[in-house]
Inverse folding.
């Protein structure tokens, strides 16, 4: 079952990567002149490489594992050979074919998509092998399956080498590095959290408590293996131009790390508060969550600090994505925690009073989620309106969350009406108890949906008001950077290149120029002292 | 593109073919590990080897007397065609647990391989170990707990 779910998830991720790549490529409108997408050969190549890679790992395992103690591994060797005999020639033939194709069509997006898929599959398999090897070396398990590590690591290294020889380019060109950064980042995060958890648990245990101290081998091995790979894939400089995939990656990683850090901090605050308010048992038992929560808070905070700085100066697409993702996380948590809190407050206790800790935890969650949502929503509202209401990140947030909260409210209303109609028809009792959850959910989710829908309507009216005529911006500079992507779609940007290098438009300057130009035709002069803008005749 | 000329196109596949041939030769030539028969894993090794060789009376000699014991020394499905590797050994001086990964070859050419793990519980019997309640391969079990 787990394998089936993993397979489906992998298919979804790989399919998503391919779909995004295809969309990015098609949006360029160049596929007719550049040899098409070439995706089918690359998909076949990825499939053949996968079968050959896993067959080779199986063969190496069967031949090199040190602990075979009965029978000959003929079955495994036969199966691995069969896979290799079919897949390896196909992979070799397609590899050579695509090398030639790339010489003719160097901007084809199939190459970076292929590299991304291979990195996703084999780097993940590599970290799983690291985990298994560390477990085998330090526990009662005996089989150190190091052949897996060699084969998967070798395949990843081979593709890095191929990537260094032929750098992928175009909008999807950064995919392999981003996939590598993501996979190794997750492994490093899991390892770092596990390592810190072990350290803090040891410290907590030394205070005389009886806490279960986790085994440090696997998290330490993951950290040691993943950190250099993450540093190699993520830390080197990225191109100056804005990139859709990098923005998505940065937004999601920054938002996720902040959610982890805030969630862990709120948990610690709730535990402390419930202790101070006398809602807890013995202190040593009560605070046993602290080693885990502290590890999550520190790692989440460190990741957030690192990635937040890279969202770029000015209101970039990555910053927008991050802020709306946080607003969505805050609003969703606010609804869930508020509903749980109301239900806990009014639940009937049969005996005793052990809900104090839960009430405090849910109260803290409501306050934190509400604060997060308000903080990020206000930041989005404070941005320049005519630019903001055009941003696709805002539309995704508003429309997506309206659909989610609206459907939730509708479903909860149906559940509430079922209870009401059953009582009307003379069946069922305890209507107050049965109605509590669906009614609370209907009201909270409904209010959220109403708020979001109102914003969509206001944005629609705003769009009509700020409907602008086409205008032309003539930029005299040494390098325009990504300024053309920041202007509204009505702008026609012309660049007159200066011969010197003192007029480069960086991200910060680009944002300032776009803000100052507004929607008027303008001439923009950029030199080492900054920029100057003069109105131009409407085209 | 100059680097293309430095590495001939045939080099990688030829190296790959040699590597595969080497691995196959190594896998077929290597004998099983030599484990101490007085250890739990060594006992399980002797037991599985006896079952694979069809020496069922010898295999039955590794059974402990207590617990559920098979009614016949001959497995219901005959001699299994498997290879086995050791996964883990756990326990103490009195009782031990040995985890083994078994790879069973299907008689059907398209049937593939079945890989699964089996757990053997062993109890100390003087200077040797005995397998308690053998669950592999599949036996008709008489569940009579001895006193």
């Amino acid at each position: 079952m787990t394998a089936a779910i993993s397979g489906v998830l992998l298919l979804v991720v790989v399919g998503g990567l391919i779909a995004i790549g295809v969309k990015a490529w098609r949006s360029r409108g160049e596929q007719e002149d550049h040899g098409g997408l070439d995706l089918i050969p690359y998909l076949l190549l990825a499939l053949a490489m996968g079968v050959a890679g896993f067959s080779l790992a199986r063969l190496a395992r069967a031949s090199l594992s040190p602990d075979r103690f009965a029978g000959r591994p003929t079955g495994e060797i036969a199966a691995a050979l069969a896979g290799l005999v079919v897949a390896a020639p196909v992979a070799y033939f397609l590899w050579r074919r695509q090398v030639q194709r790339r010489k003719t069509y160097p901007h084809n997006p199939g190459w970076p998509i292929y590299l991304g898929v291979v990195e996703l599959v084999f780097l993940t398999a590599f970290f799983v092998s690291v985990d298994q090897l560390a477990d085998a070396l330090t526990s009662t398990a005996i089989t150190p399956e190091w052949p897996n590590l060699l084969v998967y690591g070798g395949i990843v290294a081979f593709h890095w080498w191929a990537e260094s020889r032929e750098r992928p380019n175009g909008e999807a060109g950064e995919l392999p590095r981003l996939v590598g950064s993501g996979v190794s980042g997750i492994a490093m995060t899991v390892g770092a959290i596990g390592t810190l958890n072990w350290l803090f648990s040891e410290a907590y245990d030394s205070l005389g408590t009886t806490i279960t101290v986790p085994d440090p081998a696997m998290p330490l091995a993951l950290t040691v293996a993943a950190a250099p790979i993450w540093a190699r894939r993520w830390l080197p400089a990225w191109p100056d131009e804005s990139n859709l995939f990098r923005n998505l990656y940065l937004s999601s990683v920054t938002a996720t790390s902040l959610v982890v850090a805030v969630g862990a901090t709120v948990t610690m605050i709730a535990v402390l508060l419930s202790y101070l308010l006398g809602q807890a048992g013995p202190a040593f038992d009560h605070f046993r969550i602290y080693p885990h929560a502290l590890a999550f808070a520190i790692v989440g905070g460190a990741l957030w600090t690192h990635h937040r700085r890279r969202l770029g100066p000015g209101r970039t697409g990555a910053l927008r994505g991050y802020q709306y993702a946080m607003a969505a996380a805050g609003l969703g948590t606010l609804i869930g925690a508020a509903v749980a809190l109301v239900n806990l407050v009014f639940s009937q206790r049969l005996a005793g009073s052990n809900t104090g800790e839960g009430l405090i935890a849910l109260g803290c969650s409501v306050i934190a989620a509400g604060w997060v949502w308000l903080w990020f929503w206000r930041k989005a509202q404070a941005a320049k309106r005519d630019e903001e209401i055009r941003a696709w990140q805002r539309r995704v947030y508003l429309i997506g969350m309206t659909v989610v909260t609206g459907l939730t409210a509708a479903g909860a209303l149906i559940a509430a009406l079922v209870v009401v109609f059953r009582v009307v028809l003379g069946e069922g009792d305890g209507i107050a108890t049965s109605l509590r959850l669906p009614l609370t959910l209907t009201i909270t989710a409904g209010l959220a949906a109403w708020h979001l829908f109102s914003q969509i309507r206001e944005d629609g009216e705003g769009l009509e008001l700020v409907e602008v005529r086409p205008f032309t911006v003539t930029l005299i500079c040494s390098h325009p950077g990504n300024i053309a992507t920041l202007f509204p779609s009505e702008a026609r940007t012309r660049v007159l290149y200066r011969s010197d290098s003192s007029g480069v438009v960086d991200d910060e300057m680009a944002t300032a120029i776009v803000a100052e130009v507004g929607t008027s035709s303008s001439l923009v002069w950029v030199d080492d002292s900054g920029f100057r803008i003069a109105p131009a005749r409407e085209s | 593109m100059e680097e293309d000329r430095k590495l001939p196109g045939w080099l990688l596949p030829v190296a790959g073919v040699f590597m595969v041939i080497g691995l196959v030769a190594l896998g077929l030539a290597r004998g099983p590990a030599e484990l101490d028969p007085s250890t739990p894993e060594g006992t399980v090794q002797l037991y599985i080897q006896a079952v694979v060789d069809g020496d069922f009376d010898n295999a039955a000699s590794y059974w402990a007397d207590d617990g559920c014991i098979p009614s016949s020394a001959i497995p219901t499905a005959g001699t299994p065609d498997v290879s086995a590797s050791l996964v883990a050994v756990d326990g103490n001086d009195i009782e031990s647990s040995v985890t083994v990964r078994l790879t069973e070859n299907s008689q059907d050419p398209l049937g593939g391989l079945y890989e699964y793990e089996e757990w053997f519980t062993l109890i100390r019997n003087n200077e040797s170990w005995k397998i308690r309640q053998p669950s592999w391969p599949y036996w008709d079990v008489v569940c009579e707990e001895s006193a």
Chain A has three domains: 37-196+211-234, 320-465, 471-535. The first strand of chain A starts at residue 68 and ends at 70.
